[in-house]
Amino acid sequence: SKERKEAECAYTLFVVATFWLTEALPLSVTALLPSLMLPMFGIMPSKKVASAYFKDFHLLLIGVICLATSIEKWNLHKRIALKMVMMVGVNPAWLTLGFMSSTAFLSMWLSNTSTAAMVMPIAEAVAQQIINAEAEVEATQMTYFNGSTNHGLEIDESVNGHEINERKEKTKPVPGYNNDTGKISSKVELEKTSGMGTKYRTKKGHMTCKLMCLCIAYSSTIGGLTTITGTSTNLIFAEYFNTRYPDCRCLNFGSWFTFSFPAALIILLLSWIWLQWFFLGFNFKETFKCGKTKIVQQKACAEVIKQEYQKLGPIRYQEIVTLVLFIIMALLWFSRDPGFVPGWSALFSEYPGFATDSTVALLIGLLFFLIPAKRLTETTPTGEIVAFDYSPLITWKEFQSFMPWDIAILVGGGFALADGCEESGLSKWIGNKLSPLGSLPIWLIILISSLMVTSLTEVASNPATITVVLPILSPLAEAIHVNPLYILIPSTLCTSFAFLLPVANPPNAIVFSYGHLKVIDMVKAGLGVNIVGVAVVMLGICTWIVPMFDLYTYPSWAPAMSNETMP
Q1: Residue 561: left (phi > 0), alpha (psi -120 to 50), or beta?
Q2: Segment (H or E) for 376
């Protein structure tokens, strides 16, 4: 019966969400549960569920990973990272803002996932450089105080060696107890072994890593808000809206940018301040001026980074090719359908919507396997040097080691779950339950729907959330006789606010995979960003967005007061 299907689907959703929250199983294993449970409950046949696991998104991911592999193989990300740090300075506050704004800018034109996948290796390199530089400074200062010999550093190495063995055995070192190194002062002992992990010399270093990770995940999401093509949820919304209300010509690239850009800018700045304060404590004095020791340390950091950059040597042919392909990919993505001018998709006008961002990504991705990186030569018996083969920019083996299969399955699981909700009628049931909302004041309805969407998007994938929510909210708007945009715009923006969990959003999953963060870090920090986001969107929908779309009046393009009830 119908009710039974809905209940079964809700149960599946509940189990998968619980497992994702608790990480009782690896995330990608949990993501396979819908393909087991939906057929067993008779909600969808296995063939249909399986087809949800590989979508356009995956092709995009493959193309982008080809680029990422080449960037990392030829060390381009290190060059960009060091160049950027040299420009911004080593102060973590400014560095973070530099990273956030550049990530957000990239994310406007590229997909959020590919932006995060691209910038994260750079940030990782930078964080490591800063930590190493600080360590070197401390070491030299120690030498300076202790006379010629430096016991500090020798002890340091033995501790590190010991800890690496510990990590292989998957056990945490016991604080204050370490056989190899009895002679360490207790402070170093604690710092090293209180479960800090092996990579961080200080708590501050660890916090810097966490801060870097999160600021990239969050800013790539925030940047995606600003353009219709910036993220898949905006595209799904625009597609749905224009299909449902064909007479409204009000939604295009320009109008979307005008109302979402100020909102995104405010959210970006506020979350920068919040993350700074949350991880490092926001000391305004320290951010804007520095004391004597600070100057010594920063000078030394800058020096180390400069040396690292010089070690890279002059830019090589392979790096140039990679950079050119990266720029071409970005330009093709941007010019496909910019909105204010016809893009190259107009050349294929008889097949509208056939070529997507993933087409571009695959086209460029394939070139990495075609373009020769170097000649393989051999010397013939007569003494000539002959080129017998060319090696490409990347090989399949290298690509495979980079491809995040876990993320691919994770996102697939989200899509499968969404299809299950549609098929079983769970989304319709939720819609019916919402129709009594009409008696509430409009701002409260918007707030409730925004909060509901934000909560839902934390456990479901963003496209799944918006797909489930749109068919519920637009009939709701018509039923209570308000401009559909008034409810749909905030909800669409809130779909992107998946800041709490690694599974909520591919960028979160990407930065999480670097292993600096625990789930609880992301939950605590993300909660602040979430609240900021919803508050700013509410502010916008009550102020500068109103005149743009004339939100207070019920528009002529929406269906007149219909007698039919909610679906």
Answers
A1: beta
A2: strand 372-379
Report which of 530, 553, 565 is spatially closest to residue 434, judged by C-alpha positions.
565
| Distance (Å, whole) CA 278 – CA 391 | 47
Q: Is 377 helix (H, G, I), strand (E, B) or coil?
A: strand
Q: Is 375 helix (H, G, I), strand (E, B) or coil?
A: strand
Q: Cβ distance 422 to 468 under 8 Å?
A: yes
CA torsion, ordered 537, 543, 548, 554, to nearest 10 deg: 90
CA 28, distance to chain mean position in Å, is: 17
- d(CA 549, CA 193) in angstroms, rounded, equals 58
Element (H, E) at 22: helix 2-22
The residue written with tokens 């993220």 in the block is 231
How is residue 549 written in tokens? 């779309």
Residue 296 contacts residue 290 (beta carbons within 8 Å): no
CB contact at 8 A, 510 and 120: yes
Which neighbouring-strand residues pair with 74?
none
In Å, how far from its chain's centre is CA 156? Answer: 35
* 92-138 pLDDT per residue, tens: 778 788 888 888 887 876 678 877 877 887 778 777 777 777 777 77
Cα dist from 166 to 41, 147, 159, 367, 506, whole Å: 45, 33, 10, 43, 31
The tokens describing 497, both together, are: 């606010």
**Contact of 449 with 399, CB cutoff 8 Å:** no
Residue pair 229/337 in contact (Cβ under 8 Å)? The answer is: yes
Query: How many residues can be counted in the chain?
Result: 567
Render pLDDT for 159-174 as a digit per residue (tens, 0 to 9). Answer: 343 433 333 333 333 3
H or E segment and range at residue 82: helix 76-88
DSSP 228-239: TTSSHHHHHHHH
Q: Which residue has the tokens 């219709």?
A: 228
User: Which stretches of the chain drop beneath a pLDDT of 70?
Assistant: 21-23, 81, 84-85, 90, 109-110, 142-201, 229, 239, 243, 249, 252-254, 282-297, 300-301, 304, 337-340, 353, 427-428, 430-432, 434-435, 464, 467-468, 560-567
Q: What is the pLDDT of residue 468?
A: 67
